[in-house]
Records
---
Amino acid sequence: MQIIRIDTAQRDLRLDVSAIFVEGFYQWLKFFSKDKAKLTRTFSHAFNPKVFFAAIEADTVLGFAACTNDAVPSIKLVQHEFRRHLGFIKGTIAYRILKNEFEDKPYPFKMQAGMGAVEFVATASQYRGRGVATQIIQYIHENTPFKTYVLEVADTNTNAVQLYEKLGYQVFKRVPEPHHKRSGFNFYLYMQYKKQQ
């Protein structure tokens, strides 16, 4: 298994990343389309290859995560791509809802200088349990210039919370989820990791 920043790959990995993204977020994305291939094409434009890191094995993407600061977005949605793949009305609605969720929603704390946000951590279902996310996050810690790392996770995602705790992350803020009945979780947990000096 090799970890790379996806803009250094020999081919464009964004379609592969998008397929894993759609699989991971399908319970929310299926409102816009139940066709996973169509959703994969819809999102493939959105991932900033300069801040996404992927685990690769035999030219297959096993998983990924983004790491960025407040100045550089990890995802940039383009409305006409949504309309092209999902149709004018559904594409417009999906773009507006998801832009608000993925791009415009601020963190409930101030991002400081020297702080990086780890975002969109996902592993393809057939490769889970192999330490893919662990290796990607450790690679990010070792190969990005930040001193402190923060991430957001749902309180009900106990596997992810346990993984982050093993990697040295600690919860520093809890924010109630206002639509908890619909979303299936109660709190957003914000976790922090500080590099040893």
---
Amino acid sequence: MSKKEESFEESIKKLEEIVKKLESGQCSLDESIKEYTEGMRLAKICGDKLNEATENINKILTENGKLEDFEIPEN
């Protein structure tokens, strides 16, 4: 059974928790690596969702004739 896809908000919240945990310095090396890996996974999810949202907004605005050229920032 596949895991439910996390929302942007859920991913950001988890990412913030990981950052706090890593910044505390209370993790072992192995735990830090595990948390870092999970943080990178969440960061990618968030980046992908933001890019998708930007593309959708660009499409809507272009279709309505209100915006000709909207650049998507590079990661």
---
Amino acid sequence: MITRHTGDFKWEDVSVLAYQETGTNFKSITRQILFNGLGDLPCQLRYFEVQPDGYSSLEYHEHVHLVLILRGKGEVFLGDSIHAINQNDVITVPPNTWHQFKASRGDHLGFLCLVNVERDKSKLPTDEDLQELRKNPEVAAFIRS
């Protein structure tokens, strides 16, 4: 099976979907499911496109993510620190680790994300979690919820 790239980071017969079904804790981001498990390879490969100044939700979960930046640049909050990310960077998000991706001002951020097909739901921060995270001024300035 071949899924052909049609340009502008879209693929043939692949729908551009909302990032999440509900919520307001993210901004200007879409997803495309490029592979949804087959046989003894029970993983899902997704492409996320974050528009300039957009961001993913601040979350954690029990499953691991493997992320490959395909286009643009931005920043990721991972664990307890913020890192600049650029095209071709690989980010491993360990289990139960806070994370949030943001596109740089004026730039798209596009990345592949590999996860298990069967996985837990993301956990969003509680008010207490946010209070704890915001004790670090750099983190407080970065995170969106």
